[in-house]
Amino acid sequence: MIRSAFIQYRQWLVNYVCKQVGDYAEAEDIVQSAFLRLLEMQVGVREESVKNLLFTTCSRLACDWLRHKQVKNRVDIYTYMYAGEDESTEQAIRVHELEEQELKVVNRLSAQCRAVYCLSRFEGKDVHEIATAVNNIAAGENVIVSTEWYSLTGIRLPAPVQGVCIRTQRMAGGSVVSKKVLFK
Fold it and tell me: Tens of pLDDT along 143-163?
C-alpha cells in the first residue's frame, strides 16, 4: 500500500510542497518525512484515506518548516544586529520585543500624553522642559519628541555613524519625519 502510494503520489506531493516552501530539496525532505510518518502508523490507515492523509501531513510539515524558517531568520537578524555587543542575543531579542510593546502602548496615548511620555522617557527632559515643550505644542509649534538613527539597511543605531544614516524624528503631533544625513 505505501509503496504504491509512494510511486503514485510522491511527485505530485513534492510539487505541491515546493510551491509552499519555495525549495525543491526541502520539499523532497518534507514529503519523505510524511511517508515515514505514514509508514510508522500504517496499521490503522485505510487504503482509501492514504492520499488525504499524505496531503494533510505534507501541508502541516510545510507550515512547520515555514514557521521554523521564519523564527530562524528573526534570530539571524537579531544576531547580526547585536553582534559585537556585550548583551547576549536572547537579551537583545527581549529588549527588541519590549521596545515594540512599548511603542504599541505609546501609540494608543493621546497626542499630548504621548509627547509628555516621549520627552520624559526618550529625551530625558525634566518637568520644566516638558512643560515648555507642551506649551509650545499647544501654541501650534511642531516640537521634536524623539530622534532615532538607522543604517541604510534599516538597522537601528544607538548614534549616528560615519557615512550615510537615516534620521527619523517623531514630532509631538504624531507625525514622523525621516531624512538621509551624511556624517563625515
Answer: 666 677 777 677 777 777 777
